[in-house]
Amino acid sequence: MIRQDIPFLRPRFCAALLALGILLPALLAGCGAQAGNAPDAGATPSGTVTVFAAASLKATFTELARTFEAEYPGTHVALSFAGSSDLAGQLSQGAPADVFASADTANMKKMQDAGLADGTPKDFATNTLAIAVPPGNPAGIASLQDLARPGIKLVTCARQVPCGAATAKVAQAAGLTLNPVSEENAVTDVLGKVTSGEADAGLVYGTDITAAGSSAKGIPFPEAAGAVNTYPIAGVATGRNKATARAFLSLVIGPEGQQVLAAAGFGPAGEGAGSK
Question: Shortest CA distance to 268 belongs to which of 126, 129, 128, 163?
Answer without folding.
Answer: 126
